[in-house]
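EI: anyone free to look at a 409-residue chain?
SC: sure, send it
EI:
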Amino acid sequence: MFELYRWCCVRVLKPLLEKRFFSDVSAREAIFATKPAGKKGGRFWFHAASVGELEMLIPVIQSWLEAQKDAELILSIFSESAKSALAAFSEQTRQRIQARLIYAGYSPWEGEWLKALTLYQPDRFVTARYEAWPELWAALGAREIPLSVVGARSRGSLRTARRLVRLFGGRLPFFQFFTVDRSEVEGLRADFPDAEVEEMGDPRWERVFARTSQSHPRARALTQGLAGLPKPWGVIGSAWIEDLEFLGKDLFAHPGTVWVVPHQVGTDSIERFERLFDAWKIPFLKTSRFGGWLEGGGLPCILVDEMGFLSELYASAEWAFVGGGFGQSIHNLIEPAIHGIPVACGPAGITRFPEVELLREWGQLSILRQSEDCARWMNQRAVPEAQRKAWREKALLQRGAAARIVARF
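SC: here you go
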């Protein structure tokens, strides 16, 4: 049965979907062009479906490499959204950590996992969240390679993959599920009674903390050069035009300065924001045109048409709104949260991120669904320093998940 399934995936689905959804088709064959040498030490394969999963795995990879003298690493992604992050991390890994990076690139297609695992012979396969493919699982089972899932959640995709492996006559691998919070433990144990299931926390907190320790020169130049603008400062991060339309022009009538950081900084995206501000008669300054000091006066809006330093801007803010919640999904809430500031977002995608409930429990996060919520939040954003300090301390306690996970490998 699995032979037929593999044939359908590789000969039918792969040609149809690659040309339609992927631009980097030729690069996806590179995984079979590499000829790995014999193993010198432990060899782990880390696989991330997309950029969010890669962000969760990177602290675990770093912790594992630091604990190994002769570690060999295979690192794969599926989505093209993770390509730039993968390139940056693989280069950093080669330069800074004494480990042999055997391969960093796109994963094999479903139906090609057995061939790839036979070629690379990893000792363990590590992935994140709810990535689940029946042929991958059956290939791991056939090769007796344990599967560790970081940030595991009891989802239908896991149960479906399990059923299909059994239906096709395959063998399941040994599972380790590391959850972010204890609410997932019972469901995973019910679905996979032979697996190890443990609450470990979320490694993404460490990833965000690590980034804040690296000062970005452009962020420093902007915040210093514009230091005279009225306070409080707020940041609308990873903003979509729908976020601004929901918040409305009244946001800019409140005291202070709003930094708007679009999710995309291409010409078309920036021009949409410019047209909106012009229609609202909101004066604004584009950061790409600023290279010095702004003396005196008020400017209600700074439009950040550059990339790479959103986290550093959050560090200078008194409040933050994280975009995406009026589109497909919210973006990273941890980045502003670690700075101890009140955070708000729209409702789309909130069930995907475990930090949502955690931040709401702390009283730090507001979910805005209608205009009344927005008006209320705008009038309640100022919080005393004691509260901000308490939030920062709670964020610090979220670190350490990566080391706990690695200790269980």
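EI: The longest strand covers residues 100-106.
SC: 👍
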